[in-house]
Design brief:
The chain is mostly helical. It has helices spanning 2-19, 24-38, 43-58, 61-77, 80-92, 97-109, 114-132, 136-153, 158-166, 171-194, 221-244, 249-258, 261-277, 284-318, 320-329, 335-350, 353-364, 375-385, 395-404, 408-439. The radius of gyration is 22 Å and the shape is globular.
Length: 440
């Protein structure tokens, strides 16, 4: 009976978000309360479960997401992203222009949230399309595949960062595994698949080609790359050092401190404030306004993450999570595949990768205590599932369609199938790493 009530709650969430067009945060709160009542939680305990779920989920995650947004915003506003893109284009030339855009999308996608990266990079794609007279989808899909993969697979993006916290995974290891999986996923879904779409007719509007900043107003390529990639570099370096070196307790404590994502991102924001802002003549007040705008951009993302945490805690408080774990444990399916499958189903129903990932975490989490599954791989498996088949209920689908001025059929053929390839390749990559860890 409890499982049916959970299914009802998930369907109600789908209905409110997809059909009712209710804000995702409000939908999570309403469904958490209704589900709590139906599951028999004492009425005075439901709100406490909601508060606990929100608090436990946000915790350090709020710092990571906010600092990540600030870093991405200063990288964009200072012209550092434009400098990286221009340098990559000059380095690769017209013959390898897809590689240039794909690598640019991957580098810029690490610090930038997807929507910000999309809006920032699309004018660059269109500039290349008009300059070299090349098909827009053929040119643009590799870069957008890279942005999508970093959004779904790699911390400090909201869903992967939240899943790392919920599954008590190691962010550095998750990032290392995620990079290993992300590269083939981007090449297959972006670079190779786009070559089958040269005949897709896309007529992007010339008015969307943004005026670039003059070259003399852009930061240097060294500072641009340093500020963009510092969080990734430090997380990977400290993780590798921690695994390879024998350290004293005091040295280990210092290394763990500098391996903390909040500390790393704070250092990156501080460095970017100096190198991309103050050192180049930007007033501190203007830098702070940029950061305030960044927080406004991701406020709703934080609330959605919090709402998902509230629903997860209601499941936990009712005891139904254990019941779900017992049922799922009996399924003849690998837990990593199960995590991917549940996330994929919720993604197709709801459209939001972040909501799909966090909702799946609430269902899968009880299994982690009973099965020997690497939590870092579970984070990536759910992240891959959360990118499955973006379609008409996903804002990213419509952004792609309208910016590229495509038909609905061609949008599904290009964007939706690209996301599906990313998702499937991600699962294959996760299972491959798991196989190597178990048998080698």
């Amino acid at each position: 009976m409890h499982l049916l009530l959970v299914l009802f709650g998930i369907l109600l969430l789908v209905a409110l978000i997809s059909w009712g067009k209710v804000n995702a945060f409000l939908s999570f709160l309403v469904v958490a309360i209704i589900t709590g009542l139906l599951l028999g939680i004492p009425i005075n305990n439901i709100t406490q479960a909601v508060y606990k779920g929100i608090g436990d989920t946000l915790g350090q995650l709020a710092i990571v997401i906010v600092l990540g947004a600030m870093l991405g915003k200063i990288v964009a506003e200072s012209g550092a992203a434009q400098r990286i893109a221009t340098t990559m284009m000059n380095a690769f030339g017209e013959k390898y222009i897809q590689w240039a855009l794909m690598i640019t999308g991957f580098i810029i996608g690490i610090p930038l949230f997807y929507n910000v990266g999309f809006v920032l990079m699309v004018p660059l794609i269109f500039s290349v399309v008009y300059q070299y007279k090349l098909p827009a989808i053929y040119i643009g899909l590799p870069m957008l595949a890279a942005l999508s993969v970093t959004h779904g697979f790699l911390p400090p993006h909201p869903a992967p960062a939240a899943l790392v916290g919920q599954f008590h995974a190691n962010m550095g290891k998750t990032l290392l595994y995620g990079m290993t999986i992300a590269i083939p996923a981007i090449i297959l879904a972006g670079l190779l698949y786009s070559r089958t779409l040269k005949n897709v007719v896309a007529r992007p509007l010339e008015g969307l080609v943004a005026a670039d900043k003059p070259a003399d107003q852009l930061p240097g390529i060294g500072n641009s790359l340093l500020c963009s990639l510092l969080p990734v570099g430090m997380l990977m370096l400290t993780t590798i050092l921690g695994q390879r070196m024998s350290l004293s307790a005091k040295s280990r404590a210092v290394l763990d401190f500098f391996n903390d994502p909040s500390v790393i991102l704070l250092m990156a924001v501080g460095l970017a404030t100096w190198l991309l802002g103050l050192r180049r003549g930007m007033k501190m007040a203007k830098v702070m306004r940029i950061y305030e705008e960044a927080v406004k951009d991701i406020a709703m993302i934080l609330l959605i993450v919090a709402g998902a945490g509230a629903l997860k805690e209601v499941f936990t408080a009712s005891g139904v999570s254990k019941e779900i774990a017992n049922v799922l444990q009996g399924w003849p399916i690998h837990p990593l595949v199960l995590g991917w499958l549940i996330a994929a189903i919720i993604r197709v129903c709801l459209g939001s990768a972040t909501v799909a990932g966090l909702t799946t975490a609430g269902i899968i989490l009880p299994l982690m205590n009973r099965l020997h599954v690497d939590p870092n791989l579970m984070v990536l498996s759910i992240g891959a599932g959360s990118l499955m088949f973006s379609h008409v209920n996903d804002g990213g689908f419509w952004m792609f369609k309208e910016y590229f001025n495509l038909s609905l059929k061609d949008t599904i053929r290009s964007w939706s199938l690209m996301e599906t390839i990313v998702s499937v390749v991600g699962l294959i990559g996760v299972l491959s790493i798991n196989y190597l860890m178990v048998f080698l």
